[in-house]
Amino acid sequence: MKYVEEYRDPAQVQKLLGEIRAAATRRWTLMEICGGQTHAIMRHGLDELLGEAVELVHGPGCPVCVTPLEMIDQALAIAARPGVIFASYGDMLRVPGSGKDLLTVRAEGGDVRVVYSPLDAVKLAQANPDRQVVFFAIGFETTGPANAMAVVQAKALGLNNFSMLVSHVCVPPAIEAILSSPVSRVQAFLTAGHVSAVMGYWEYPPLVEQYHVPMVVTGFEPVDLLRGIRAAVRQLEAGRAETENAYARAVTLDGNLPAQAVLRRVFEACDRQWRGIGLIPMSGWRLTPEFAAYDAGQRFAVTGIITRESTVCIAGQILQGLKKPHDCPLFANQCTPATPLGATMVSSEGACAAYYRYRRFVPQTAPENVHV
Amino acid sequence: MCLGIPGKIVDIYEANSLPMGRVDYGGIIKEVCLAYVPEARPGDYVIVHVGFAINRLDEAEALATLEVLNEVGDMARELGLEADLPPGVLA
User: Fold this and answer.
1) N or C: which end of chain B has fewer CB within 10 A?
2) Residue A98: which of A126, A79, A127, A76 has the closest Cα?
């Protein structure tokens, strides 16, 4: 398929790998932010091919992984109510809350539906005027425009039986949280290309300047990923730190302005808890006063939630790039995609699921005194 | 959920006052909201997230990327910098 195959060309991949190896005088540690990138890296074996030149650590860009436990428990409580149709992206259904997940709520009689697009949830509200339809609006800046349009559309159609449980998160504050952590090993970032397709990349230069760390806007195909890695390695070798766009066919500096206009109307910045990581100031979005009437959190005031997080899952450290899935003693034995103990094993964007699916069961060891 | 996929716009129409279109992902066709790509026309490629096109792919930039890569590749070959990999390892 056009815009896919040519960016998976093995010859191009080999050329880029050769250039990266030739450029690297030491092993650099890069973080790819987006879980989609993590899966593409594993799927195409780029981590193994890059072994001695670059270590890739995996970032927090997995939306269902970072959705706070309290929000999931709230979703479980709302979804169990009679008269409610709870609509969610499919990835969310098996994410463990305190004790159960949405799939269990469905098995117990809750009306939980999987939607592909938020507009499908609006259609459910139109088709079921006697029921309350609640859409679980989670995600990063990539799903933001879609989730925002759902509530704009519900308002335009006068649907009083539609509301959203909003748990949006944003990439730049998460990057800053990682950069300001004293234990971070990250020397450069491959930022999430599709987040920048929406938001542009004008938010990165101030972070690059403050922390002197290269940031390269990077796509999702093997050639795109290696172009991003090559740009980062060249900057690091030259002692430079700049914002660079290695995904120009999809990303401009300003991003998608019509989408940003709707985002500004529907959402406003707020502090947000990230599951396993903690509170990151002004890292989330909530509904603006214009749309507050569509806030499911207020419409179905859920009280008495006592969260119980797994005491054994190390997803938080994995999401910050401090540990890798195979560092966890439960990985691939007690914790598998069929029996997930944490969200990172559930999601199609979670690092543990990627390591399990692509069989990265043992740590990759870098030789001593690497010379590439 | 949040993986963006490129697809080609087959046609454009309106539904519930929103610009919509059918998008072809190499044979699989799905309905997509085009509200955020008002400049898009049938035949254009867009990246779609959860049923919404979030941008139109820039053909000139896409070609430029591939051409630069070919040139750089030629240069790498000239300099003997090609990676020593088994053939088809990524195919």
Assistant:
1) C
2) A76
Confidence (pLDDT) at B70: 66
Give me the interface pTM, i.e. the ipTM: 0.92
CB atoms within 10 A of CB A77: 16
Q: Nearest by CB to A248, which of B2, B61, B83?
A: B61
- Are A11 and A115 in the same domain? no
Answering whether pTM is above 0.80, one says yes
B60 CA to chain A: closest CA distance, Å? Answer: 8
Nearest to A4 among B6, B36, B88 (CB): B6
- Structural domain including A215 reads 5-28+43-58+172-241
Please judge whether A49 and B2 are an interchain contact, meaning their C-beta atoms are less than 8 angstroms apart.
Answer: no
- With a cut of 70, list the residues of chain A below it in pLDDT: 364-372
Where do the domains of chain B lie, and which CATH numbers do they carry? 5-78 (2.30.30.140)
As to burial, measured by CB atoms within 10 angstroms (0-12 exposed, 13-18 middle, 19+ buried), residue A214 is buried
Distance from the Cα of B54 to chain A's closest Cα (Å) equals 6
Interface check for B28 against chain A (CB to CB < 8 A): the answer is no
Chain position carrying tokens 């234990």: A183
Contact (CB, 8 A) for A8 and A222: yes
Whole-number Å distance between alpha carbons of A76 and B81: 56
Region of A354 (left: φ > 0; alpha: ψ -120 to 50; beta: rest) is: alpha
Burial class (CB in 10 A: 0-12, 13-18, 19+), A99: exposed
Q: Mark which residues 71-90 of B lie under 8 Å from A by CB.
A: 72-73, 76-77, 81-83, 85, 87-90
User: Nearest to residue A319, comparing CAs of A142, A66, A139?
Assistant: A66
